Structure formats: C-alpha cells, structure tokens
Amino acid sequence: MPSLDYHREPHGVYFLIDNKSFYASVECIERGFNPLKAPLVVMSEADNTNGGLVLATSPEAKLLYHLQANVSRQRDLPADPRLVVVPPRMTLYIQRNLQINAIFNRFVADCDLLPYSIDESILDLTHSWHLFGETPRAVAQRIQHTIRHELGLYTTVGIGDNPVQAKLALDLYAKHTQDLIGEIHYDTVQETIWPIKDLTSIWGIGHRTAKHLQRLGIHTMADLAHANPYLLKQELGLIGTQLFAVAWGIDRSQVAKPSLPQSTSLGNSQVLPRDYHNVTEIETVIKEVGEQVASRLRHHHQLAGAVSLSIGFAYAASEMTGESGFSQVMRIDPTDQDRAITAPLITLFKQHWHGQAIRNIAVYTAKLQPKQGQQLSLFTGMEQQLRTDRLAQTVDQIRSRFGFTKLVYLRSLVAGGTAIQRASLVGGHNGGNAYD
Amino acid sequence: MTKDVQLILERLQPFFKQRSQTRYWLQITDNHYGQTYNVFFNYQRKWHRLKSQPLHTLNTYNLADLEAIVTELQTLTKLTIDYVGFGEQVWPNRQQRIQRKPHGYE
C-alpha cells in the first residue's frame, strides 16, 4: 500500500470536544435526569415550525425511536408516554457553553481554544497536555470527568495530530465507543480513514459532493486518497484538493492564527409562519428584516455597499412554477440607515415578484466597510441627513436599554408583521423565561 | 404570596387547560450541579407524550426557603408535586423525607 512521508507535516495534540446531545442533555440535567437514561426531545413549537421541529434528541430517544438529531418533525415522534417533550431555552444553552469553555480554559491558553459551534470546541493541547496526564487520552478522560462532575454533561473527544484528524476521530469513532474517545494519528490514517464507505459521514462531504465523487468512481476514502488530485481540482474546484488532503489526514491550518475572511456580509433570514400572498404583508416583513439588518450594521459600526434579497416561494407555488424563489443583489451607496437599506429591497422585490406565495425571506448586506464618518449626499439637506442619523442612533439606544419591543413601527402591529414575536428569540428559537 | 410563587402561578396558567384525561403536576428538581431548585409544570394526556414546561429557577439554594414556597404552592394549587434529585434529604421543618423513591430517569 502506498504511504506518505508525513514528517514535514505539522504534528501537534489536538482535541475536538463535543457535547453529547447538548440541548437535550442540558434539559435532562435541569430536570434531575441522567442525560443517557431519559428519552427526551427538545422541540420548538413556534408558529413557523409547521407543528413542531425537533432541535435535539437524547441518546435514549435516538435509540428507542430511531430519530435523527435535527431533521425530525413533530409528526415523526411516536405518541409514546415515556417520551418527554420540552421547549428550547437558547439562553440557558449559551450559558452552559460558556461554562464548558471556561473549564477548557483550565487546560489550554486562551489562544489555543477555539469554540467551533455551540457544542463543539477545538483545543490545541500541544504545549499543555503533559501538565495534566501521562497520555493525551488520559488528559481527555480528565476533561470529560471534570465536565461531568461539575456540570453533569457527557462529552465526546476526538484526538488527532492536527484539527482535521481530531474532527474525523470525533465524528467517525468517538461517538460510537464506550469511553466516548476516538483517536486518529498520521500512522493510523490508513486503518481509520480509508475504510470509510459512507462518504457523507466525512466532514465537508455532503450528499451532492458524495454523488459527484461517485460519478468519478470514488466510493471509499481509500479511492479518494488514490484519486488524481489535479482531476479532483478540475471537477470540484478548491474543495477537491482539500478533500484529497482530508483523505490523507492532512491539515495545515493554524488554530491560534485568526483567519480573515476576504469579504464579510451581514444579514438575517426568516421562515414565515404561513404562506404570504398579500403584497403589503410581504413588504412589511421585508422592511422589518431590512431594519433589523440596518440596526446590526450600526451596532458593528459598518456601512453596507450592497444589499441582497432572497425570496423562497411556498411549496405549492414552487411546485407549480418549478422555481424555488429568487435572489437578487443591488449596489447601493455605503449606508447603515433603515430607509436606505429597505428602499432598494422593496425595489428588488417589486421588480422580480410575480404574485407567488412566499414562505422564506432573507436579507443580506455585503461590501461592508467600517464607518469612519458620515458620507454626506449632495441631494439631501445636510441638516436632515444628520437628523436621520441621530434618530436611528436614539432608537437603537432606547431599544438596547429597554428592549426591542418597547419601540416599534406601527406596521409591526398589523397582520403579517413578525418583528415583535421574533424579538424574544435567541438564535431563531425560544430564549427561555425572561428572568428566573 | 411571595414573588417566586406568584411567578410560578402566572407562568403555569396558560398551560393548565384542565382537559379531560390529562394529568397535570409540578416537578421540583434539586439541580446540585447548578446549586438551584428548578420548577417545571408537567402535563400528559393519556397515552400521549409527556410535556414539561420550565416555570422558574430558585437561585437561593436553601431547603427552608424551598419548604416555605412548596407549602404555599400546595395550598394555592392542590397540584401533585414530584421531587427529583433530592436523594435522602429531609424537609427541615416537617422532618419528612422529600423524595420517597428515586425517579426512573435519575
């Protein structure tokens, strides 16, 4: 079997730590249940979830009802009296995540800890593991015990010589072993990564990429490792070469070095609680989302040089027309003002909408630049421009001090408006009781 | 009525619909990890899934305070109260065990 000389590749000790069924486990602990024993699901029953959307499933519920984590609907749940259904509390999960990362901080320096998502973090223990145990595996066990002891939560740990090996060890092995630890190293790549036949279980390979690879005759990770990298690049672009590197367990990224995206964007999207047909209702929501984005721009002291509007049609409308929606971009003069953002959005909407029923609305701003002063326009009076800017700042201040719902546009109160209801959401879901 | 009891009663009201063939009860948990007492409102229709709604978190981790709240809740609601996570702890005033047997999911 061909092998590769890895000695010039970066060698370190990386942990990728994930919380087992995070939201469900937190809810179990809050109720005094063992996270591995109770069949519990966290289900959002907001208006726009079409009956209910399962956000998290405890390991026992997964086992009993063959549920998947984030694609199950209320209709997939059995009417089993043993099953406990609870609403989400996003604020609580964020608090727990912060506590977990504070525990990680006892084992690594700040710069070696990279929170990857709400329930996953990357730890670079290259320089500190030997302070806490005989082997990296012993350190992993110690971290697991600390978190279980202090917060009651179970964690799974992937260990690797670089971040991608740790990630694969976590996804492919740690989640299925007794001690919830998996390891992949340069010298075990051939036994651990190559035999994988289900390509979608590999980080970075979705259904479409897997199909594309299969068309190229690549059915296992071993096939991918022995494919022609130039062909992969030609077929899949840059991601092709990246996947080729993954197949060999190679990752040259440096966790401690922050990566700067070439261009940033900022936006919001929402799924509507029902199909919207009425033009006034739709424009109300577009304006609300536009204003939310403008407010976030002001908060980040950024100006947007382009706005984009994406509209998703309702199921029936997309079946009939064969189109799922449209997405359009417009260049604008750099701004962070409500009206300057919403006006082009409404123009885009009027130009491209032909009466279809709508279910999704997304507004994004791009070509961001830092706000270093106000660019005055020649076409409006200077006084008025300054007044508009001051007004927006005052509204933002009132909202940040007293809450968003204390000052809303009248249109948010008419049928179709969603801003007030959305104001209490955290990460798109119920934040939990306002004060406990 | 204490502020905590008032908050609990206010929050359980929308879920207490008094439907037939439906069981309603309160669950109080000793979360020794977070050092809090958590109050939930549980309800379950016969042969259906159990729904558990968080009502309140009591941050004063003191059994005597909890006992006072529980006494008030019992007189005001008549709801059954399930205790989870209390182990062999005893009410300071009543001198009775709080939780009779361990919960199946503990």
TrEMBL record, chain A:
Residues in UmuC domain copies: 14-206
CDD domains: PolY_Pol_V_umuC (cd01700)
Matches recorded under InterPro entries: DNA/RNA_pol_sf, DNA_pol_Y-fam_lit_finger_sf, DNA_pol_Y-fam_little_finger, DNA_polymerase-Y, PolY_HhH_motif, Rev_trsase/Diguanyl_cyclase, UmuC
Leader peptide range in chain numbering: none
The UniProt record lists the keyword Coiled coil: no
A GO biological process held by the record: SOS response
Molecular-function GO terms, alphabetical: damaged DNA binding; DNA-directed DNA polymerase activity
The UniProt record lists the keyword Nucleotidyltransferase: yes
Entry's transmembrane regions: none
Keywords: DNA replication, DNA-directed DNA polymerase, Mutator protein, Nucleotidyltransferase, Transferase
GO cellular component, one term: cytosol
Family: Belongs to the DNA polymerase type-Y family.
Name this protein carries in UniProt: Excinuclease ABC subunit A [Lactobacillus paracollinoides]
Native source species: Lactiplantibacillus mudanjiangensis
Taxonomic classification: Bacteria, Bacillati, Bacillota, Bacilli, Lactobacillales
UniProtKB/TrEMBL annotation, chain B:
Protein name: Acetyl-CoA carboxylase [Lactobacillus paracollinoides]
The organism of origin for this protein: Lactiplantibacillus mudanjiangensis
